[in-house]
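thread: overnight batch results

M.L. [08:02]
morning all. the overnight job finished for the chain we discussed friday. pasting input first so we're all looking at the same thing
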Amino acid sequence: MRLRFLGLAAGTVVAIGVAGYMGIERWSFLDSLYMTLTTLTTVGFGEVHPMDPSGRIFTIVLLVMGVGLIAVLLALLAQLVQEGALGERGRRRRMQKRIEDMKDHYIVCAYGRVGRTVAREFEAEGIDFVVIDKDGELEDEMLRDGVTFLIDDPSRESVLYSAGVERAKGVVSAVDDDAQNLYITLTARALKPDIYIVARAAEEATAARLYTGGADRVISPYVSSGRHMALLALRPQMVDYLEVESEKAGALRLEELLVEEGSELVDKALADTLEEGSCLVLRRVSGDTFTNPDSATKIQAGDLLILLADPVVKEGAR
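M.L. [08:03]
and the structure it wrote out:
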C-alpha cells in the first residue's frame, strides 16, 4: 500500500514537471520529459534549451521535490527491510492466507519427531493441517517439507485462533512438555467445545490430567511402543501378517466410521451398506459393543463402526 502510494506520488510529480516545462518554456513533450527526469534524479546533464527566470525557478522547485521523493523512498525501503516485508513478513502473510482458506482441518502442535510423523500421515491421507511450533529454527525444515505452519506458541489463544481453531476438526498436541500439552488441551477445549483433541503424554500420570482437561484420546509414545514390542514378541505371526500385507497392498487398515444423525446409513442393515465381513466392531451410543456384528444388524445414529480396510458402500445405500 505504501509503495503504491509512493509510485502514485512520483508519477504525479513527473506529470507536473512535464506540464510545467511544456507550459512555461513551450518545449516539446520529449524535451520536457527528459528535463523532468534529469532534474528529479539530480543527474545534472544541463538544460535542454536555455531557460528564462520563470523556467529556472520552476526547475528549482522540481529539484526540491525530487530530492524529497528520493529521501522518502529510501526511508520507506529501510522500514520495509527492517520489518521483513520483502521476505519473511510476506511469506508469513501468504501462509496466514492459506490457513484462512482452510476448514475442517487439523492443528498439529509441535514439529518434533512425533509431530513430523503425524504430519506425514495427514499428507498421505490428503488431510489439511496446520503446524504450530515456537522454534524458529524449524522454519526452513517446514518450508522444505511444504507444510502450512505458524512460528508461535501453540498454547496461546490468539495463536490457536490464527490457526483457525474455530473452523478446525481436531487438535493434535505433540509437544515434549506434558504441562504445555495440558494447557493446549484446556485452551483448545475452551475455544471450541466440540473439537476432537489427541494429546501426547510423556508420563503415565499425566494421562488422567489430560483426560480431565478435555482430551478425547491420550497417547504415550513410550507406552505404545512398549505394547507394540510386547505384541511382536508374544504374537509375531499375527502382527507381522497385518503389517506386511498393509505395506504391500495398502488394503489392510483399520478405519472408524461415526454415523451422524440424519445420515443415509441410519436404519439400513450392514449387509445393505458395507461389504460383508468388513465391520469388525459396532459400538452403540449406549456403550454396548458388538464384535463381528451380524450383517443384518441395523445401523443407528451415533453408532461407531470399526472397519477393516476402506469401507465399500454399495450402490443405492448412499
